[in-house]
Amino acid sequence: MHGMLATVLSPHAYAQAAAVMALEDVLDHREGGHRDRHSGDFWTVLFGTPGGDDPWGWRIEGHHLSVNVVVADGRVSATPFFLGANPARVTYRGRVVGQPLHLEEELARELLDRMGPTARRLAVVSDSAPQDIRTGNSPRISPSEPIGVTPAQLGKPAAELLVDIVRFYLDRLSYELADEEFAQIDPERLHFSWEGSLRRGEGHYYRVQGPELLIEYDNTANEANHVHTVWRRHSGDFGDDLLAAHYDESRHTVVRGMAQNG
Questions:
Q1: SS (H, E, C) the chain
Q2: pTM (two decimals)
Q3: Quick check: 73 pLDDT over 70?
Q4: Is the pLDDT of residue 15 over 60?
């Protein structure tokens, strides 16, 4: 299972995933063992036959980890991609010892600082944060009304950092796969929004939206020490776009073959 993850994920994202799994034992100890959590409680499902002409895929899933991979016609899809962490931070005398999703928070805070007060008023759309990522575990998502601030409303340094945040989430995949995903992003059509407190240690949430992109981050539970993050694509989750293209091409091939034989 770890070999499958390490093949598809970038080195830093694989380290994050491994840390998230290891935290299950830490959380189990904090809870007094009442829920019997263990770092081995992650499961693999294989769909189809690897290496053949037909689409195939796999899923690795457990508490705070969900990686979904579909392969079709030489292309790879890997959303939804969910990572969470509880505890989000482990500290010693106020200093952080472990925080696997550290940059997910820090890059967004840096963006808020870099954009300045005028743009920040557009970006912060609510003083209260939702209790979790809004898409939850919905198998499919629909495009929602974009809210927040756009690159055109940001200065160049802030606009570049917004793109960097998107790239950071996409770079959870191996770099070749991430390059393919990033090529489909229109940076000018991104929106960034923040909800909740701007103070560290208090509940907060942010979202990055694009025509084929949704990134959500939420840290509200357990006194803002329990993070959920997800990267999704509106038409491509679970390989929907790849599978549709594959079967469409298959129908065309059959029709052409019948016409030629007729």
A1: CHHHHHHHECHHHHHHHHHHHHHHHHHHHHCCCCCCCCCCCEEEEEECCCCCCCCEEEEEEECCEEEEEEEECCEEECCCEEEEECCCCEEECCEEEECCCHHHHHHHHHHHHHHHHHHHHHHEEECCCCCCCCCCCCCCCCCCCCCCECHHHCCHHHHHHHHHHHHHHHCCECHHHHHHHHCCCCHHHCEEEEEECCCCCCCEEEEEEECCEEEEEEECHHHHCCEEEEEECCCCHHHHHHHHHHHHHHHHHHHHHHHHHC
A2: 0.92
A3: yes
A4: yes
